[in-house]
Fold this protein.
Amino acid sequence: MGEPARDPARVPRPAEGLAAVAHRAQELLPPESVIADHTRLRTYECDGLAHYRVTPGLVVLPDDAHQVAEIVRACAAHQIPYVARGSGTGLSGGALPHADGVLIVTSRMRTIREVRRADQRAVVEPGVVNLDVTKAATPDGYYYAPDPSSQLICSIGGNLAENAGGAHCLKYGFTTNHVLAAEFVTPQGEVVELGTDAPDAPGYDLLGAVIGSEGTLGIVTSATVRLTRLPEEVRTVLVGFESTDQAGAATSAIIAAGIVPAAIEMMDALAIAAAEEAVHCNYPEGAGAVLVIELDGAAIEVEQEYAEVERLCRENGSFEQRLATDPVERALIWKGRKSAFAAVGRISPDYIVQDGVIPRTALPEVLREMTRLSEESGVRVANVFHAGDGNLHPLVLFDDSVEGAGEAAEKVSGAILDLCIEHGGSITGEHGVGVDKSKYMTRMYDDDDLDTMQMVRCAFDPANISNPGKVFPTPRLCGEVPGRHKDTHPLQEAGLAEVF
Amino acid sequence: MRSTLERTARDAVSAACEDVVPGGEDDLVDGVAPGLVARPASTEQVSALLRTAAEHGLTVTPRGRATKLSWGLRPRSVDLVVDVSAMDRVLDHQAGDLIVETQAGARLSDVQRVVAEGRQRLAVDETMIGATIGGTVATNASGPRRLAAGTARDLLIGITVVRADGVVAKAGGRVVKNVAGYDLGKLVVGSFGTLGVVVEAIFRLHPLAEVQRWVSMPVSTAAEAAEAVHAVVHSQAVPAAVEVEWSAPGDGAVQVLLEGRADAGDGRAATVAELLGAASVTSEEAPTGWAAYPWEQGETALKLTCVLSGLSDVLEVARDAEVRVRGSGGAGVLYGALGSDAVTTTAAVTRLREVCGRHGGTVVVLDGPAEVKRDLGPEGVWGPVPALDLMRRVKDQFDPDHRLSPGRFVGGM
Ligand SMILES: Cc1cc2nc3c(=O)[nH]c(=O)nc-3n(C[C@H](O)[C@H](O)[C@H](O)COP(=O)(O)OP(=O)(O)OC[C@H]3O[C@@H](n4cnc5c(N)ncnc54)[C@H](O)[C@@H]3O)c2cc1C
């Protein structure tokens, strides 16, 4: 495809630009991989955050980096916005399409290209499902450490874009700590390598900037990830407490004892009730809170740590401790936790999954304030969270058929984020900003901070076509960009544009 | 070669910060004499200095305690050194949250002293005595513990930088888990002072281990060394570090560090000793040279990386090229030293670059005599760098006039 339009008189109309991109896609891809039919387009209208919906202008399902690059080039030439999409499980509307734009779906790029045990590396395409990387590595005694609860479905490309975490990131870190290199298509349609197979590639850590950028800097077409050795010993214990205060105190005591468990997850009474209803995980009867604590590592080390964890939980008021004695029991304990989001559907017709972070030591206070918020508003809040690192996932329950219930829930959900910010935390620990939270960014960062972040955006995507409208509340103007056209109404432009 | 500044520029710099002196003999930046050295006491002063520098078109090099100031290429010009060593406070240690907030001029050792009171540590080794936080972040310097804990890149959770135009910007925050906005810290780590001046940093901490055991195994061939490293790394021993000492002919060692709870230390050491074989020795003391780079003053300093399967080949070539090597064999990050003869250096770098490149890695000439760096040039010092165009675009955004440590970094940026 040609150069981006430079002559302002040749600024294309979106509809015609889109038609040109569709034409290019049809040249490149088999017919079933180019979707322009309205009914089929609608299947892609939202991601995991279903209350934002936009039917995309065009959906393409490329097979490789070359095709991605060609489509992006076509978009660049016609100033058409594009959005990458993996499995569409994102919870912040990051993969929300543009009506005048292209949705580039990676679901046909699902090859695990290499698993190299000797080097502790796997090279995978972006559409590969997270858990499949672990499955491919397990026969060699390895796994892929970042384990979002959605790992059965979510894609590695989506994980990179969101810097996905999981229950085990307390000890093992996030996606960004496990990716060494990526093949990447810039918003100009160039294919570049970021990082190297070995650590510490020289130069700016562009990969580090791309990870967590929610698809706004370009599209990842392959990732080289680090594989982690499976531990010799894993101990998973389910601990029942009368209150979240006790469970929180036990968590603090464990951290203070110098133990970094693989995971410490907390659920409150309402979340337990929901999980019980949904998956019959048989959590301790009458518990006001449970902790799921997992220790892993060298067997003798784990044994020492376990003895201490057991004692610290007891000293902080646990009334029941159930140690999983085999993988089946362990899976059952985790099932209760990992199904918690979906499970609240059993006890409430509608709910909002919130994602905020607080310094872990603020937990008791924030929990108390959340209870107060809930009592004052009459909106029920179930709590599931990564207690070890202060990442809260309050589930705000409501019934959309009741008038005003949705708004009341939104209000409580927003107030919870305010609490996180007030306590020096973050508006998102793993679900990302997307469209949903961009308005909160100014609460965490001032104009200079945001302006500086957008300098990165301007370096990568001065034309603002890669997932525009996400993350930042207002776009930064990147100086002179040839042929730039922004937010102009198609009709207004019609008289100016030439037909391509 | 000394930068001479206009009177007005000098006055303006002095107005921005109380402590400004002309650059002296001790202030050379890799041989370049700076016009002025400013020692700001606050972020506001750093900001005022950079704003002034922008107004007067002055080139600026940030400095901590100068332990790695000569790393990278020689800057094209240094009108002003911004020395942050007076900003040396450890601002806040929250033991319960496992975080520390510190000024950039704080020494790594001071940070360790403060957090040790809560039985914690910042899991970055002090590879150069006296190193500051700012310098450690700017060079992403790392030692043995990177195997398990990663580097400053992985441990940094929040950062405040002063941009080339004087604007103060922060990213990240005080919580470990945070995906709000771009991770600017990643760009700044390892940017060698070319994107901005780091003024504050927040890190996640780790608990201090109750015991440490080193299991060392003598090796005499590259294959033996690699085999020992593989045995430990692919085992379930969870080592904190796996080092290769390969700095004297015929006399190498693989050194494994185990850290953890008191009652498990000996048992875990015994497991590793068994893996390594009868010749291994267990100690409660670190072996000589632990966490130190292998080079002497005036030698050429290399950083070599490769994937694990390439370790044997890389060590082989290093020995053949008379490059003394020490480093994290387990992580695939090694450091090399060689004498000051330029011809040998160029040849050795070329050979090593070939073998490291074949195994997914790179070679960077971190430091060396002026002639060596000059002869090698940007491509020879930093090696081929993919995505260099994109890096230039980042640089152009952050420092459009190329005044921050100009010429020091990849591609002569
Ligand atoms: C039940 C449930 C549980 C969850 N649990 C967790 C959890 O524990 N931890 C966690 O971190 N998240 C969790 N999530 C959120 C979500 O699964 C993650 O954000 C995941 O990483 C998204 O992957 P995806 O493939 O579905 O991406 P999508 O939703 O398709 O896309 C997400 C973002 O990534 C971008 N993107 C996708 N592919 C690429 C690519 N190749 N290159 C560039 N950008 C791309 C998109 O543009 C979008 O901005 C959960 C979601 C659900 C529904």
Remarks:
- Chain A is about 35% helix and 20% strand.
- Residues A 47-48, 83-91, 94-95, 106, 126, 148-150, 154-155, 157-159, 161-162, 164-166, 214-215, 219-220, 341, 430-431, 467 surround flavin-adenine dinucleotide (CB under 6 Å).
- The longest helix of chain A spans residues 405-422.
